[in-house]
Amino acid sequence: MAETSWGTMVMRRGKEKGALKLVNALRRQAQRAQPGTMVYLVHRKLDAKGNPTRELFFYERYRNKAALKAHLASPSWKAMVAHWPEFFEGTGPADGGPFIRLVRIGGFAREGAIPIRSAR
Hints:
Blueprint: E1 3-10, H1 16-33, E2 37-46, E3 52-62, H2 65-72, H3 75-87, E4 99-102
Helix pairs in contact: 1-3
């Protein structure tokens, strides 16, 4: 059964560049080396004027629990956990936050609805 999660992270003020570097490394590794990662989307919240804030939103879907475990065992995820206090606010992933598990109850996605950039 597929594993789906949603989460938020708030980057520390003045540490956004380093935080985004960690997030991008995580996304890149998931795309290149984790075939069980089916969807990995990261969004940055915009304020009322359209300027980027420090808040990130993640939507992730894994083929099964083994694929999720592989993601959590990856060097890029371990780096995220290790550097959490420096780059992100709040409870870190090692303490059970900031992700919650989801179960789909409905919806759809049309082909091409989610444009995906290449793994750079």
